Amino acid sequence: MIQDALRFERVQPVRLYERIVEQIEGAITRGELRPGERLPSERELVVQFGTSRATVREALRVLESTGVVRSRPGDPRGPEILEIDAESLRRPLARLAGAARLSLGQLIVSRMMLDSTANQLAAQLRTDEQLVWIERAVDTMRTALDEGEEAFSKADMAFHELITCVAGNPLIKLGHAAVRDTVLALISNTITDAADSRVVMQRSLAHHEEVLDAIRAGDGPRAAHASLRSLYEYYSGSVPETERAALKAMLPD
Amino acid sequence: MIQDALRFERVQPVRLYERIVEQIEGAITRGELRPGERLPSERELVVQFGTSRATVREALRVLESTGVVRSRPGDPRGPEILEIDAESLRRPLARLAGAARLSLGQLIVSRMMLDSTANQLAAQLRTDEQLVWIERAVDTMRTALDEGEEAFSKADMAFHELITCVAGNPLIKLGHAAVRDTVLALISNTITDAADSRVVMQRSLAHHEEVLDAIRAGDGPRAAHASLRSLYEYYSGSVPETERAALKAMLPD
DNA sequence: CGCAGCGCACTGGCCTGACCAGTAGGCGGC
DNA sequence: GCCGCCTACTGGTCAGGCCAGTGCGCTGCG
Question: pLDDT: is A9 or A246 the higher one?
Fold first, then answer.
């Protein structure tokens, strides 16, 4: 009976450097340490934590690899507390894409989910001021059409960045950025067939205008569906036959 | 003109330990190192990489903090390559929840997105065999109703775990697990009002049966909507007024 | 008096060498 | 044949040291 109630967890040694990481992360979480502020120098931390420099450094390396702080050699002000951004999600995501054999199709499905949700939220939550920004972003894309692929791609990214901001959910925003980057890294040299690049851009622009229209009308589902169709159309050709079913399953009809 | 074409990136010093991390991660990505296998001992790595042990250790700490490897003191077989799991996403996610002041409402919205997408995919992609598993999972929930809250909660988690597996997208699966854990950590002691816990459980079961029904029929959108309504109903009371609009924006109608 | 340039004190990056508490597997005794 | 100890390793931590960088204050010049 008692055996059922009280269950023991597997004990594991807690390393000193983990304690240090916890303390620093905790201080940031509690707002005692804000982005832009500085940590004491390594040698000062050694005194405060009562460990060796090697241990302090291991903790700092962990914090640095997850994008919490950045140390620069020679800076007397000490390690800097960083703003949180997609970087902290991108790294584990990239690992997932590699080690867990995440396929392009699975990434696209995730992108469809994130993008359509962001559009839906943006359409229903946008303010009039934000609508103006979005319209301006589409205008930028329109003019970028003549400035070549790179400019268009940049404007496209800015549009989606804006949408995810308007959606008001940092998790979706960062996830979107991380997945997009991972997708781009995976197919970097697959597309860019210069011949019909203009056609592709024009079609992309048309889809974005469709989304804009739905957002203007405050029609969430329509904005979501437009994005799903757009992504499906754009990527379904690059995805192996067996995975296309998953992409299709994301479509509403 | 040239200034426009060739753009320089900000150079930043590459630390030795980062090189080591790259090499080990690369070996895993390329499949040369598989989960369960062992890395050479630290002292052996020192020889292979030609650095000091401190540097090798910093690299191992980074890999360990992201859940790639695990070292145990005294184990002559060396550090172990780990299976990839939600852990690697949960940590950065938890950081996000804290440092980026991720609110409960934003987490719930993310959960709605992940859960409904998983349901939609599961409904449209399931095999008949998988359907039987899902039906069995709902049966387990039904019997768990009388075994108390903990058992029910466990069966509930098993159900969602199964759904995300059937959906066939590890990213959604891991994201779902990570977000769910974060939500639970955030409201751990908020719910569990023993008085009406049975009512809550019964309602939850009803929602799951609705989802099951849609999955049986292969009706993705219906499965998705059922999940959205269920989560909205369950959590909208716990979310501050100002954020409820975002939850509502996730609903289809 | 203002400012440009230099030097210094300090930073982080990396190394060497050492000690300790654990673990696993082989070897010896029962 | 099996059990239990012993040893050769493991990782965790420490101390101390060297080096290339950086920022700031001081100095000397205009």
Answer: A246
Domain count, chain A: 2
pLDDT at A178: 82
Q: Does A65 touch chain B (CB under 8 A)?
A: yes
When pLDDT is cut at 50, 70 and 90, the band that residue B179 belongs to is confident
Is the distance between the Cβ of A73 and the closest atom of strand C smaller than 7 Å? yes
State pLDDT tens for residues A91-135: 777 776 666 667 889 999 999 999 999 999 999 999 999 999 999
Q: Quick one: closest CA in B to A14, which residue?
A: B72
Alpha helices in chain A (DSSP H): 2-5, 16-29, 42-49, 53-65, 87-99, 104-125, 128-144, 149-167, 170-187, 197-217, 220-235, 241-250
CATH for B41:
1.10.10.10
**Is the pLDDT score of A223 beyond 80?**
yes
> Two tokens at A233?
């159309």
d(CA B163, CA B135): 11
Contacts of A96 in chain B (CB under 8 A): 84, 88-89, 170-171, 174
Choosing from A59, A81, A103, the residue where a domain stops is A81
Of A46, A64, A81, which residue constitutes the final position of a domain? A81
Average pLDDT estimate for A22-37: 88
Does residue B106 belong to any structural domain of this protein? Answer: yes
